[in-house]
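Bumping with the actual sequence this time:
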Amino acid sequence: TDVPRYRIYRNGSIEFEIDDIASLFGPSSVAFYLGCSFSFEEALIEAGVPVRNIEQKKNVSMYRTNRQCESVGVFQSALVVSMRPIPQDLVQRTVTITQRFTDTHGAPIHWGDPAALGIVNLAQPDFGDAVDMCEGDVPVFW
C-alpha cells in the first residue's frame, strides 16, 4: 500500500484506521485517492516561503469553488481548494516549488482575487480554519 495509514469510512462516518487496506478490497470495492496540499509545506519553508497556517498554528483554509469537477457516474462535486497567503514577491517561487508535487496537488490553480473562484469571504472557509493574511500577501489556491 502507498500511504502510512488509512481511514476507513462507512456510511459517511469514520469506522477505524488501518495500516494496510489490501484485505478490505473485493470486486465491488470503491476507493478514492485524495492528494494533500500539506505535502509541499516543508519544501516551501525550506525555500524561505512563509506558511501562514503553520505560523498561526491553524489548519489550512479550504473553500468550495464555482468550478465543477468532472463527474463520473453518480459521483460529482464542486472543486474544493486550499488557500495559503503568500507574499506577492514569493508567488512565482511558490509556483516553481509546488509544481514538482504532481502526485499530490502540483502548482496552484489560481492566485489573486478569490471571487474568480466564487469565493466570497476568505474569513469564512468551508473547511479548516481562517488563516490571517499579512500585509503584502496574496491568496494562493491549490
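The C-alpha cells above came from a reply further down the thread. The chain has a mean pLDDT of 90.
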